[in-house]
Sequence to fold (440 residues):
Amino acid sequence: MIKAIRGMRDILPPETSRWQWVESVAREVFDLYGYQEIRLPLLERTELFARSIGEETDIVAKEMYTFPDRKGDSLTLRPEATASVLRAVLENRLEKGAGVKKFYTLGPMFRYERPQKGRFRQFWQINCEAYGVEAPELDVEVILLLMHILKRLLPGELRLLVNSLGCPACQMKFRAALGLFLINREGLCEDCQRRRTTNPLRVLDCKSANCQGILHNAPVIRDYLCPDCAAHFARVLELLNRFNVAYELKPRLVRGLDYYTRTAFEVAAVGLGAQDAVAGGGRYNGLAKALGGPDLPAIGFAIGEDRLLELLPQDFGQDLRPRIFVAALGEPARERAFTLVQELRRKDLAAEMDFEGRSLKAQMSMADRLGAAYAVIVGDKELEAGAAQVRPMRNFASPASAAANQEAVEGERPPVAQEKVRFEALVDYLTGKVRSEENL
RNA sequence: GUGGGCGUAGCUCAGUUGGCAGAGCACCGGGUUGUGGCCCCGGCGGUCGCGGGUUCAAGUCCCGUCGUUCACCCCA
Fold:
């Protein structure tokens, strides 16, 4: 048997309905904040990611699905969406004009990593990007939007972590100071000794307790922010306070992509294991220019949809149960039932029936298992009488009442209010019943 | 890329010192010549991940390999 390749999984029903639910909520909130959807190719020129994410990052250096196409051009399955969105915006001149330009997109990303809890080689992101405005109000609006989506979906506690990474000038000063600090430190773990040269910022959020101890007196980026960056960050925090958004200042928060500037944030959740970041984002004012475009302020975030789904309660999702199950006995009745099912569906009522000529008992059992609200029974007797039996199916909701019922009637079938309804009136009768119940 | 755990029925898992491959759930049928939840009876269902080796005999021991899972690393 051929199986799915490593790190790639099938998302199956009923799980898919939970995904649809999440996506519909996200779309609603995006609408509310004035964001418009943009749909993008999954493949881009390798150069796009190398230049935007950073040659030295792990993502580019060892985690991309990169291969030559038939012509020999180097292509890459997108490892993230930001670079693609910006490319599309610049290519189509969407940044032109006054005001903030707001976009969202969602879909699969690809990274060649070792799979583990909450980490897949194909994973899904819900992505938000806003361009053209430098004001800290936009930073806050984007964070509010993110928290809005998450709070509508998740009952559990979320931690919003916030930091400022400054502008390139601040970063240069800070890197120099950090490098100086690290160069004389003894006792850093093996990884950090490597990071010291490859990616010094990463040393800051090493998980080793030992390293954290050593880093206790390390320089903090906040002390290296230029007056503009400091003012921007102060304003962001002030507004978060004003809107009662709980956050934690995390001076050591750095992000894995080189393009971030100023505001950086992350949302962590409990219950996800080691991969506890549900969403992350920040400002990336320099990226458009780095890609050969204009000077374009930008900010955005990505939600890890797979991880988000992991946190959702099991009963989240749409009700996919059919309203009506039509049980038929004998060939003429099946013929009638098939017509009835189509008529119900034309009235937008979910209806099902059996095509295999199974016993009435088996069909009733199917109706129950599918969760139908009503079973319609059609047999020779009903055809002759010109009226079908309509049986409400949800009388025995709880196992307790089922047991009580069983004892009460002692061997006899529990009394169910089963009605005879003439075929001509059946569709209207059923639509009426179901609609009135749904409005309760 | 590194380290540990685990691969047996559709699912969750048992399987003793190597000796006839099991249970629960699910599914199908019957208990009711035409009525769902519970209960009772019966049935279907297996390349024991794959390849090699040791042995009279391997799900069990050995080697390899693939997958999976958790952690490191990294990130959503």
